[in-house]
Amino acid sequence: MSYLKTTTLMRLFTFLTFLSILFLAATCTQSSINLRKLEGTWLHAHEEDQEGVLVYRPNTYAFPPSRGRTGFAFDRAGLFTQYDIAPTDGLEGHEGTWKMDGDNTVLISLDDKQEPDYRLEIVSLENNVLKVRRLEK
Fold first, then answer.
1. Residue 63 bridge partners (DSSP)
2. Can you give the chain as a three-state secondary structure string?
3. In this structure, are residues 132 and 118 in contact, taking their beta carbons and an 8 Å threshold?
4. pLDDT of amino acid 9
5. N or C end: fewer C-beta atoms under 10 angstroms in the chain?
């Protein structure tokens, strides 16, 4: 093969490789949820709920007075604790696990099986506000 043909083929190969990488980068999607932001304890800010979207804030938030708040905690290792209002108006924890089920959905499974597994669709997670829709499995 002549030098000119070899050089032309190498340039064409380099160009096609570059286009392939560019196309691959453009079609890759990242999960829109930053899992590190999800970790921690979240309490229900029921005053802010809208049209089936439940609003949660970190347990360190200065909530207005309420007769109890439900919530949950996501642990990095996939451990989950659901907090329900106890008979004495405190919080009662139910342990379980969580895992991502798609880009914006979390699958929750409680160990005591007092309620069926369910999913939380994460509508948004920004500025220390978690908005979810509860979906039955």
1. none
2. CCHHHHHHHHHHHHHHHHHHHHHHHHHCCCCCCCHHHHCEEEEECHHHCECCEEEEEECCCCCCCCCCCCEEEECCCCEEEEEEECCCCCEEEEEEEEEECCCCEEEEEECCCCCCCEEEEEEEEECCEEEEEEEEC
3. no
4. 64
5. N
CA proximity to 121, closest of 13, 1, 32: 32
Provide the token pair at 39: 């970790």
Closest C-alpha to 114, from 79, 82, 74? 82
Give CA angle at 76 (36, 31), nearest 5°: 45
Q: First vs last Cα of the chain: how many Å apart?
A: 63
pLDDT 10s digits, 94-116: 999 999 999 999 999 999 998 89
- Look at residue 116 in the predicted model and tell me its pLDDT: 92
Residue 49, token pair as written in the block: 């709920």
Report the alpha-carbon distance of residue 119 to residue 117 in Å, rounded: 7
Q: Comparing C-alpha atoms, which of 45, 55, 69 is closest to residue 120?
A: 55
Structure tokens at 22: 């560019």
